[in-house]
Design a protein that fits this description.
This protein is of the alpha/beta class and 123 residues long. Helix content is 44%, strand content 19%. The protein contains 4 helices and 4 strands; from the N terminus they run βαβαβαβα. The protein has a 4-stranded parallel beta sheet, sandwiched between helices. It is globular. The N and C termini lie far apart (43 Å).
């Protein structure tokens, strides 16, 4: 496997906060021809982005997409995450790392969020 995905979340002091991200990672990993999937967190939880990249590189991954699991292109996604990606690129010069847009910016995600909000009216 030469491709990997890193689902990047903010993190929380409560480890249960990461449960939905673990579930997304499990869905991805269970798909046919799935890439290698890792979680990474900005703060409070591990692994960090560096640790996740190190794991993927150790498994022979040469191309990674980092997907910010944020609702919007926040300051963390615009400033902190690109700096971490640049540091990972410097540590692993042969590794190709792409930084995706925050998932909440995708119209498909916004549609599902609208559906979930409307479903709250019906209980």
């Amino acid at each position: 496997m030469t491709h990997g995905l890193i689902l990047f979340g903010h993190g929380s002091r409560d480890p249960e906060w990461a449960r939905p991200l673990r579930e997304v990672a499990a869905r991805l990993a269970g798909a046919p021809s799935a890439p290698r999937v890792e979680l990474a967190f900005l703060e409070f939880l591990e692994p960090t982005l560096d640790q996740a990249c190190d794991r993927l590189v150790a498994e022979g991954v040469t191309r990674i997409a980092v997907v910010p699991m944020f609702i919007a292109q926040s300051g963390h996604v615009r400033r902190d995450l690109p700096a971490q990606v640049d540091a990972a690129r410097a540590r692993h010069p042969a590794l190709h790392i792409e930084l995706a847009t925050a998932v909440g910016e995708d119209a498909r995600v916004q549609q599902v969020m609208a559906e979930v909000a409307l479903a709250a009216l019906t209980g």
